[in-house]
């Protein structure tokens, strides 16, 4: 069987790995056609590169080396002939397929803003998307001379880009026309808490204000005019206003497309030999744009094609694939499931909220029956990590779901780190030998007056020896405060 | 023969730390004291201090027992018992072939016994089917160390080296309970704020990281591999690797780096529940302590918590990869190690009681290894069988079509210690012949057709190899009770009755000499050692210690300083991605069960449950439940709780504590009967090592509305009774 994969990005390359790992009978010969000249890399981490935290080589993903695999890099697919089952590339080569997988991904959407179209689809100098390794390289170069950067769009990528630029030392203004930052995930209350944290990390938020035009002089960006008339002087604009699925060849091949190539729950298009996964696909439940969904599709399709199926896994239940964590230094935002201001009313759901804006904290959980179906966490720390674990595994919620909002304080018995006087009698002082304060007090009452005496009488300190200081302290205290022997 | 009045220098009968002890015979009983030695520095835990009580166990076996026609087990003579065993073994062998007789050994046997048991299986019984309970203990670490480093020695450095390190990453080890005196060696890392404990539970060991002594990462059970891949991600992506070391001493780093590129911290957090902040902090601590960045040293150590998993080998491989990326392995003051569990877990796996190995850590399918060992045994290499079935597969095959019809058990209590324990009992009951050698009527002995009373610890001579690969002398301090015999003698008698080839020594020193010859040239080479040398130097030597013509070899405290025993001399990054635990939680079983140990008990509890002081301090099984989970199920402290998986249920008393995650309960596994955690655990195994997945399965938790608290049976029970040390009414 000839399996052709168009796209060698995060999802396409993962799919190829998954298929080859499962194809133990050697059913498939696989050809991958990838437009980018480099090996597959982890696009999710581009903002870490811009931030200066990671170098580009650390983004490279596994690239299987397999006798039945051919990878064509720097080669774009030009057309699909579904009748003859042939993919033609831009360099004219033809690749017959028995099954075809489209993993063509998406491109940054550039808004129709005056000044941005510099002719022929090119952008003015100083204006960039953040979608590819080349974008990241260009942005890093541009930060060297930039006095101020503007990020257009405060979705997840926009906020990550703004944070990365700020970490580079470049002052950043983030411009967002909606009423809330990340409005798909955050309501206004959560957005307000997030916005108030931004100035501390070098980001100036402009919320509810759009960009009216890019001001360009000599082909070079000099500023952004906002809809309220203000002009932000800037020589670097990062556009983060969403993505558009790469549908060209699917559309030309006559495959039904809306925002993506329409596929069924198993990734099949209207043509039973053609499949689509990742950002270019539009499954019945809708695309999230998150890599977790794309990887899940890759694995599910690999299992379908090779006739293998793994045991049910927690993240295969549909839940858990829509967890969003913003990777931005100093900004702690995690959302999952039901969240955001625009969500429909649902009477089966119960929403609980911890609102602590003065401390930069906002936690909201949405519970349906005994399940956590959504959460919004800003500045929540470990609580967010715990909620993600509960959400992805469908852990039954506590009897009072308010317990989800906060980590309870420790209730366990204290070890002997307190003062001798306040230490409870039943506190264990020597763990290795199970010796309590009461045991030591009793030995003291029987005449033990040195650590050696106490050790001989109780075995305290004779294991790892770590309690020696505590035993010395207790001995000193007993010497001065020992109560009169009790008549027991 | 009167024993000299002075103390006998020996070592503790329990765990792999093998704390040095002085045994003094006073008025016919042994008194125990700690003895100075680098590992325990004179210290002992409660188990060690009370260890002599096992010598005086009131139900000590002193006569062979045979199940008679009535089904009751009855005393008999040694000759009658051995004749019967030999006759039945011959019948079964003649009818079903030699592989129809199987042998199950233990990691508590001395080196001499482990060696002789492997030899007995191969050339007296002629069976391929021998394996041991170390398969439940060390096999994942073993497989990973062999693949990555070329040899498996739990700690390839002296334990005392840990003291100089600024950071120690401890994964799935609760050594504060399992080998308490070892905690002393963590003091340096704790003082530097660098003790990083990865455990789903705030165990006593995890608490050692409190108060600024380090970090506790508390992942969802079964997600240790993603935690490690996340740590590798941070180390690679932030450029914290020891690039020169990686280039000169390793291969395969690029594959490891690429896999780690797909495990960025936010993804790790979503899978494991360990926050990005904690993950990065842990990686930064380790990197800062690494020699390439000017630190004083760092260690990565694994224990059963991460190894007893269906992806245990991959997890240990990732831990080794982390140590390699940081340039730790084969450097003085840094390294990777696996903390061995059982007393002779190390030596027990070197001398041939594993299904695929011959003495000296030789592989049984290697023709040169077979020839060498056959020469020592005085047999034709062709009569040595090939690979047998690993433990879980072996136990599952008992009494089935094509499976063994007879089983000999030495130093193991399978009905408590094996996963899916009720199933194991069913398989044992399906046998035609079960022979158990033990010192007390363990739960497994209670099911046997023939029970042979054998020697223990201070009653015999031998050697043990500790967690740091050091060969220690175990010495006799007291005469055994009349009627009990050495297993070396048992095998010699049976070998003679079975008409076996070869010489069957019964003196441990002579068996050691033979073992040393068999190990010569192997990975674990003991050929430069003898009881006489170990006694004369009164020092313990780390293997390998090959024979020399002149000055004796000093032993090898630290491995890998110059190169790795791999074909190219380099360590290998072996890469495997996460596939998750075999059993995921879901609506039908929404809670994880993790199992482990308590300080007062050792393994199946067959010894420690018989020590009054230990049984008094830790009398019964319990289940730790988080307050939020307890509240959800209406569980109060002290309630009787039932924990149920797809395999079975266990009942225990609730301890309500936030030491466990709200999505997880914990049970210790030392008890038999309805309180046995291993009735619930999963017997799915790691595809590489055969290690069962003891440490995570999916369960439901419910309060049992029984008014009566569990009644405690006597600490010991007679044979032939179904009663166990702790019975809970059903």
Automatic annotation (TrEMBL), chain A:
GO terms for molecular function: iron-sulfur cluster binding; metal ion binding; oxidoreductase activity. The keyword Cell membrane does not apply. Pathway: Nitrogen metabolism; nitrate reduction (assimilation). Keywords: Heme, Iron, Iron-sulfur, Metal-binding, Oxidoreductase. InterPro entries: BFD-like_2Fe2S-bd_dom, BFD-like_2Fe2S-bd_dom_sf, FAD/NAD-bd_sf, FAD/NAD-binding_dom, NasD-like. Belongs to the nitrite and sulfite reductase 4Fe-4S domain family. This is Assimilatory nitrate reductase (NADH) beta subunit. It comes from Knoellia remsis.
Automatic annotation (TrEMBL), chain B:
Residues 710-730 are annotated as: Disordered. The keyword Iron applies. GO terms for molecular function: 4 iron, 4 sulfur cluster binding; metal ion binding; molybdopterin cofactor binding; NADH dehydrogenase activity. InterPro entries: Asp_de-COase-like_dom_sf, MoPterin_dinucl-bd_dom, Mopterin_OxRdtase, Mopterin_OxRdtase_4Fe-4S_dom, Prok_molybdopt-oxidoreductase. GO terms for biological process: respiratory electron transport chain. Residues 5-57 form the 4Fe-4S Mo/W bis-MGD-type domain. Keywords: 4Fe-4S, Iron, Iron-sulfur, Metal-binding. Coiled coil: none annotated. SUPFAM superfamilies: ADC-like, Formate dehydrogenase/DMSO reductase, domains 1-3. The keyword Iron applies. One of its GO terms (cellular component) is membrane. It comes from the Bacteria. This is Assimilatory nitrate reductase (NADH) alpha subunit apoprotein.
């Amino acid at each position: 069987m000839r399996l052709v994969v168009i796209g060698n990005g995060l999802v396409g390359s993962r799919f190829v790995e998954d298929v080859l790992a499962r194809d133990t009978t050697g059913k498939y010969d696989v050809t991958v056609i990838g437009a980018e000249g480099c090996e597959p890399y982890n696009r999710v981490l581009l903002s870490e590169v811009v931030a200066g935290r990671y170098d580009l080589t650390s983004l490279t993903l596994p690239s299987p080396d397999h006798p039945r695999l051919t990878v064509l890099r720097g080669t774009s697919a030009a057309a699909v002939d579904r009748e003859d089952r042939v993919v033609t590339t831009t360099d004219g080569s033809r690749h017959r397929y028995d099954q075809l997988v489209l993993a063509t991904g998406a491109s940054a959407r550039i808004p129709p803003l005056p000044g941005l179209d510099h002719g022929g689809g090119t952008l003015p100098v100083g204006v960039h998307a953040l979608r590819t390794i080349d974008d990241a390289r260009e942005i890093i170069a541009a930060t060297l001379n930039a006095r101020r950067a503007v990020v257009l769009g405060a979705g997840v990528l926009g906020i990550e880009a703004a944070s990365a630029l700020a970490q580079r030392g470049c002052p950043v203004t983030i411009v967002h026309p909606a009423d809330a930052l990340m409005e798909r995930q955050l309501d206004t209350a959560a957005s307000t808490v997030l916005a108030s944290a931004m100035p501390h990390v070098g980001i100036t938020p402009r919320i509810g204000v759009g960009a009216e035009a890019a001001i360009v002089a000599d082909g070079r960006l000099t500023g952004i005019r906002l809809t309220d008339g203000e002009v932000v002087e800037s020589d670097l604009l990062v556009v983060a206003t969403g993505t558009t699925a790469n549908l060209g060849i699917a559309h030309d091949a006559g495959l039904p497309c809306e925002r993506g190539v329409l596929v069924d729950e198993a990734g099949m298009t209207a043509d039973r030999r053609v499949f689509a996964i990742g950002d270019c696909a539009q499954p019945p439940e809708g695309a999230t744009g998150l890599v977790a969904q794309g990887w899940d599709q890759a694995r599910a399709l690999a299992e379908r094609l090779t006739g293998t199926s793994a045991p049910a896994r927690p993240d295969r239940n549909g839940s858990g694939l829509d967890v969003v964590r913003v990777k931005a230094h100093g900004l702690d935002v995690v959302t999952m499931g039901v969240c955001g201001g625009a969500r429909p009313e649902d009477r089966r759901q119960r929403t609980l909220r911890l609102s602590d804006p003065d401390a930069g904290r906002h936690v909201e959980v949405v519970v349906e029956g005994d399940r956590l179906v959504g959460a919004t966490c800003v500045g929540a720390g470990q609580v967010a990590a715990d909620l993600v674990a509960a959400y992805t595994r469908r852990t039954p919620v506590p009897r009072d779901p308010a317990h989800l909002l906060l980590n309870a304080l420790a209730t366990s018995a204290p070890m002997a780190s307190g003062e001798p006087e306040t230490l409870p009698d039943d506190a264990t002082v020597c763990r290795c030998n199970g010796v309590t304060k009461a045991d030591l007090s009793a030995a003291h009452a029987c005449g033990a007056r040195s650590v050696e005496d106490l050790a001989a009488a109780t075995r305290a300190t004779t294991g790892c020896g770590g309690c020696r200081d505590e035993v010395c302290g207790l001995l000193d205290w007993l010497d001065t405060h020992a109560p009169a022997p009790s008549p027991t | 023969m009167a024993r000299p009045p002075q103390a006998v220098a020996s070592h503790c009968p329990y765990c792999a730390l093998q704390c040095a002890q002085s045994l003094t015979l006073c008025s016919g009983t042994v008194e125990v004291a700690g003895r100075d030695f680098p590992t325990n520095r004179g210290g002992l835990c409660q188990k060690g201090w009370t260890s002599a009580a096992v010598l005086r166990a009131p139900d000590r076996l002193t006569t062979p027992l045979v199940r008679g026609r009535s089904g009751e087990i009855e005393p008999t003579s040694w000759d009658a018992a051995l004749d019967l065993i030999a006759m039945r073994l011959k019948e079964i062998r003649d009818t079903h072939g030699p592989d129809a007789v199987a042998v199950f050994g233990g990691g508590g046997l001395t080196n001499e016994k482990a060696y002789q048991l492997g030899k007995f299986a191969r050339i007296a019984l002629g069976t391929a089917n021998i394996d041991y309970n170390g398969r439940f203990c060390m096999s994942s670490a073993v497989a990973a160390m062999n693949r990555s480093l070329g040899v498996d020695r739990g700690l390839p450095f002296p334990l005392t080296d840990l003291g100089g390190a600024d950071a120690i990453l401890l994964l799935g080890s609760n050594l504060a309970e399992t080998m308490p005196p070892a905690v002393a060696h963590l003091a340096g890392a704790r003082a530097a704020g660098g003790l990083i404990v990865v455990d789903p539970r705030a165990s006593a060991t995890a608490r050692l990281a409190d108060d600024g002594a380090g970090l506790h990462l508390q992942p969802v059970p079964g997600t240790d591999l993603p935690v490690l891949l996340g740590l590798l991600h941070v180390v690679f992506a932030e450029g914290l690797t020891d690039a020169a070391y990686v280039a000169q001493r390793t291969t395969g780093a690029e594959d490891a780096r690429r896999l780690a590129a797909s495990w960025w911290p936010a993804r790790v957090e979503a899978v494991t529940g360990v926050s990005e902040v904690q993950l990065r902090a842990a990686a930064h601590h380790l990197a800062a302590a690494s020699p390439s960045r000017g630190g004083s040293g760092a260690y990565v150590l694994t224990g059963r918590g991460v190894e007893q998993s269906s992806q245990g080998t991959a997890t240990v491989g990732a831990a080794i990869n982390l140590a390699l990326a940081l340039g730790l392995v084969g450097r003085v003051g840094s390294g990777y190690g696996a903390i061995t569990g059982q007393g002779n877990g190390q030596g027990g796996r070197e001398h041939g009681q594993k299904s695929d190995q011959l003495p000296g850590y030789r592989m049984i399918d290697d023709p040169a290894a077979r020839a060498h060992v056959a020469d020592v045994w005085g047999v034709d290499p062709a009569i040595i069988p090939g690979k047998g079935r690993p433990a879980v597969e072996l136990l599952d095959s008992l009494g089935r079509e094509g499976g063994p019809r007879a089983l000999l058990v030495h130093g193991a209590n399978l009905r408590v210690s094996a996963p899916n324990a009720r199933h194991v009992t069913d398989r044992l009951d399906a046998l035609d012949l079960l022979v158990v050698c033990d010192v007390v009527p363990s739960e497994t002995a209670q099911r046997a057709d023939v029970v042979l009373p054998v020697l223990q610890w201070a009653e015999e001579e031998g050697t043990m190899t500790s967690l740091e690969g050091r060969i220690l002398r175990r010495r006799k301090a007291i005469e055994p009770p009349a009627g009990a015999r050495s297993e070396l003698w048992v095998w010699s008698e049976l070998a003679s009755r079975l008409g076996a080839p070869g010489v069957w020594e019964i003196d441990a020193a002579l068996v050691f000499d033979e073992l040393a010859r068999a190990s010569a040239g192997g990975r674990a080479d003991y050929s430069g050692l003898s009881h006489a040398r170990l006694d004369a130097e009164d020092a313990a030597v780390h293997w390998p210690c090959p024979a020399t013509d002149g000055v004796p070899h000093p032993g090898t405290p630290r491995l890998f300083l110059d190169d790795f025993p791999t074909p190219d001399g380099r360590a290998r990054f072996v890469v495997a991605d996460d596939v998750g635990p075999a059993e995921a939680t879901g609506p039908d079983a929404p809670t994880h069960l993790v199992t482990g140990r308590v300080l007062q008990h050792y393994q199946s509890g067959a010894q420690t449950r018989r020590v009054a002081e230990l049984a008094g301090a830790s009398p019964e099984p319990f289940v730790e439940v988080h307050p939020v989970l307890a509240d959800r199920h209406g569980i109060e402290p002290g309630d009787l709780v039932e924990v149920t998986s797809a395999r079975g249920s266990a009942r225990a008393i609730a301890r309500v504590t936030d030491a466990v995650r709200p999505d997880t309960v914990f049970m210790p596994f030392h008890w038999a009967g309805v309180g046995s955690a291993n009735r619930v655990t999963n017997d799915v195994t790691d595809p590489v090592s055969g290690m069962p997945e003891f440490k995570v399965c999916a369960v439901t938790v419910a309060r049992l509305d029984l008014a009566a608290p569990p009644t405690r049976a006597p600490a010991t029970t007679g044979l032939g009774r179904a009663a166990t040390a702790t019975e809970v009414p059903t």
